[in-house]
Amino acid sequence: MEPSQYQTFAEDTLKIKFNDIDLLITAFTHRSYLNEHRRTVKTHNERLEFLGDAVLELVVTEFLYNNYNDPEGILTNWRSSLVRTESISDAAKSFNFEPLLRLSRGESRGTSRARTQILANCFEAVIGAIYLDQGYDKAKGFIHQSVISKFNKILESGSWMDPKSHLQELAQSKESATPVYRVISEEGPDHDKTFTVGVFVNNQLRGQGVGPSKQAGQQMAAESALKYYLKDDNSQ
Questions:
Q1: How much is the pTM?
Q2: What is the CATH number of domain 3-156?
Q3: pLDDT, position 160
Q4: Number of Cβ within a 10 Å radius of residue 112
């Protein structure tokens, strides 16, 4: 993409006129891209990501502190739900960041999980670029528009809670039972096992997950079971 295309994106989509468009271009440049463009590209987005991560956390923390009197533990959980990889990757997708990513050919064919992480890192880098080019208030406005605006939905859905805690709350409320996790299968050598875990409520399988440890499999199973209960709520 040409610099003018990034400038157009900034003005039309982000509603920001960059003074130094190279900052925005760098924010979209993954480390892998340099390997295939060593003669023309010298910087990638990791330093901007480092800066943007700090700005994002400060703005979200400031918002929660100024608007809610809840205990620190609750505020921390809320903040985590707003700045976690999936949340900010979704924000990047809502602005259609993906076509602007500068990746190596290998990275462009990566897994869905890898792309989610790349988009989240890029989103933080864009915040860093906005902060450097436009200042704190402009970066704060962008974060409110793209991330904090989703907070009410997060509160309503309960997705800010740890999946296992949230599932236990729902299962006890709806079925008067506590979830039980069981390993369904194990695959692979001892140093690289994959565990398939099922979560059962009243001896009924409500969700299943796969992970590199039993704990990770339980988390994934809990997330799967939550979809079962929340889908039931939405159909009513």
A1: 0.72
A2: 1.10.1520.10
A3: 65
A4: 6
